[in-house]
Predict the 3D structure of the following.
Amino acid sequence: MDSSRETVAILYDIENAPFEMLNYTLGKARRYQPCRTIVVSDWEERPEQKRWDKLLNRPGFTFRQINRTYLGKNSLDSALYDSAKILYEDGVRRYFIITTDSDFVRIAEMLNEKEKSYIIGIGTKQASELLRNAYDEFFVYPPEEKKKVRNSR
């Protein structure tokens, strides 16, 4: 797939964001095409994440197996950071970062270091202000339902 300024990258922190956030994010990302989605996990140690198997043939998805036994606790964060860096070097400047983990602030900082990127964050309401402020836009999942206003007459 061509990585360019027209591509949007979707970086998914599978360990700190529920699986259901994927469809929500893809809905938000429809306005951007093409999309390139990167999912990183230790499927050998966390077999419950095998539900991603049904997405393996979906175009635009890249899956990376990270072995925590050898690479350590923050290996997933590092792998997503490295993926973002490679995409940035390829010219990608639009990103969706799906996480509630404040460790991902450093990815946003790196993506804006030399040339500004446009970063949309998606996370739960527990996401810190530091994380929310690291992005150009931030969407809370699940989205809050809008309350109907009653006319009092």
Summary: The mean pLDDT is 82. The longest helix spans residues 75-89. The chain has five helices and six strands.
